[in-house]
């Protein structure tokens, strides 16, 4: 089941909570965030360079949008970020979100909508839920009553969307269309397979399989469309948060990691913790749709 694939660290950015890794097919760079250190990173594989912008708060994700901007999810709402000027601008609040919540993970669908989740920053209360940003408006959509949301992730065709309840160790799936989202149903109980690890950020590949990072699991896992575990890739880092598939052929995997729950004496055991990691994937990803801001 475990694939014998070499993995390596691309750049050690010392992430406390690396997340939101995404391949920008237009710019040909990787975007990712460090939530706890308020950092938006981008890595350029053409020359190996990386650069960082300071966000005005905890930043959960950044998605390429129309007009050359990025749409970002911060603790207090949605922001735009201009890579040319390096300026963040507040776009809107998320209606009804309590002050102790923050935004955590997101994706786009083929219609340019953004699906994202909120969570209790203290990771205690079940105050998180999922939303969709559509034509400049935000509405609740998908499961609620979750302490740590992750995903969503949408298939290339836009017919399925996956929601993760990290603490419950469950991934759910719902039908999706241009009209909206259906009722979420069970997809995978990762706790039955990895009892000591927690499903983190999911993605879907070009073969409609789902990959998920496994926090405290030192690996990513790949599941078939019917929820069967078909592959694992292991790393020299314990807390794996999310991966994306990018590069010219969409077969280069980029993986974010975290260190916030590691004890000082554990860093020697997990030398790649806090780094952006990579491996050559056995399957391709696909280009994601840019966010439609209005």
Mean pLDDT reading: 97
Second rung of CATH, namely the architecture: 6 Propeller
- What structural class should be given to the helix and strand makeup? mainly beta
Integer tally of domains: 1
Total count of helical runs of at least 4 residues: 1
What is the C-alpha radius of gyration, as a whole number of Å? 17 Å
Shape estimate: globular
Supply the CATH class.
Mainly Beta
Number of strands: 25
What gap, in angstroms, lies between the N and C termini?
Answer: 44 Å
Summarize the amount of helix as a percent range: under 10%
Strand content: over 45%
CATH topology: Neuraminidase
3D structure, described in words:
51% of the residues are buried. This protein has one domain (8-280): 6 Propeller (Neuraminidase). The chain has one helix at 190-193, and strands spanning 8-12, 18-24, 29-34, 39-44, 49-54, 59-64, 70-74, 77-82, 87-92, 101-108, 114-120, 128-134, 137-146, 149-154, 160-165, 170-177, 180-181, 185-189, 198-204, 210-215, 219-223, 229-234, 239-246, 252-258, 275-280. The mean pLDDT is 97. It is built from 1 helix and 25 strands. Helix content is 1%, strand content 53%. The strands form 6 sheets. Strands 14, 15, 16, 17 and 18 form a 5-stranded antiparallel β-sheet that branches. Strands 1-25-24-23 form a 4-stranded antiparallel β-sheet, with no helix packed on it. With 294 residues, the protein is an all-beta fold.
């Amino acid at each position: 089941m475990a694939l014998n694939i070499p993995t390596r660290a691309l750049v050690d950015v010392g992430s406390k909570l690396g997340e939101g890794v995404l391949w920008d097919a237009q710019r040909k760079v990787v975007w990712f965030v460090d939530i706890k250190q308020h950092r938006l990173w981008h890595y350029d594989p053409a020359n190996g360079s990386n650069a960082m912008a300071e966000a005005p708060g905890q930043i959960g994700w950044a998605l390429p949008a129309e007009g050359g901007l990025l749409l970002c999810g911060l603790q207090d709402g949605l922001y735009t970020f201009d890579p040319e000027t390096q300026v963040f601008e507040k776009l809107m609040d998320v209606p009804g979100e309590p002050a102790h919540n923050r935004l955590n993970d997101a994706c786009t669908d083929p219609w340019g909508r953004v699906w994202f989740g909120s969570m209790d920053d203290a990771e205690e209360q079940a105050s998180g839920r999922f939303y969709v940003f559509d034509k400049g408006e935000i509405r609740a959509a998908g499961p609620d009553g979750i302490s740590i949301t992750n995903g969503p992730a949408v298939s290339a065709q836009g017919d399925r969307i996956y929601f993760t309840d990290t603490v419950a160790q469950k991934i759910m799936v719902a039908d999706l269309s241009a009209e909206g989202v259906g009722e979420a149903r069970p997809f995978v109980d990762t706790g039955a397979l990895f009892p000591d690890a927690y499903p983190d950020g999911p993605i879907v590949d070009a073969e409609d399989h789902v990959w998920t990072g496994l926090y405290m699991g030192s690996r990513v896992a790949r599941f078939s469309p019917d929820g069967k575990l078909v592959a694992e890739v292991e790393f020299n880092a314990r807390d794996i948060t999310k991966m994306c598939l990018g590069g010219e052929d969409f077969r280069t995997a980029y993986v974010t990691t975290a260190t916030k729950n590691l004890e000082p004496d554990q860093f020697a055991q997990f030398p790649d913790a806090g780094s952006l990691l990579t491996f050559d994937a056995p399957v391709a990803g696909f280009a994601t749709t840019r966010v439609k801001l209005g």
